[in-house]
Specification:
about 100 residues, mainly alpha, 4 helices, HTH psq-type domain-containing protein
């Protein structure tokens, strides 16, 4: 993966997106703008970013409901990673 340039949302961008979500505005276009610059973010990098956001939210005393919503995102990312790993194992098994 070396040499691959990735765009990752920084903390300020994440907070802005969360604030827009709180205000019921569309934050998806902001995130898509960052991601559509020609690169994708790996699930692992996304998981690390969301976990960092969780740490920040805990330190800043965010509402429990908000923290729970972000934790659900972590769970979904891990589930996708597990599915991907299972599929890789199945593919590798049949290649042998």
């Amino acid at each position: 993966m070396s040499g691959v340039k990735r765009n990752v949302l920084n903390v300020k961008q994440k907070i802005e997106i969360l604030q827009k979500l709180d205000n019921r505005e569309s934050a998806s276009t902001d995130a898509e703008d960052v991601l559509n610059e020609g690169n994708t973010i790996s699930r692992y990098a996304a998981l690390q970013s969301v976990e960092t956001l969780l740490d920040y939210m805990g330190q800043q005393g965010f509402d429990y409901g908000d923290i729970t919503a972000v934790r659900k995102i972590c769970v979904e990312i891990r589930e996708q990673m597990n599915k991907e790993q299972k599929q890789r194992r199945i593919t590798d098994f049949f290649k042998q």
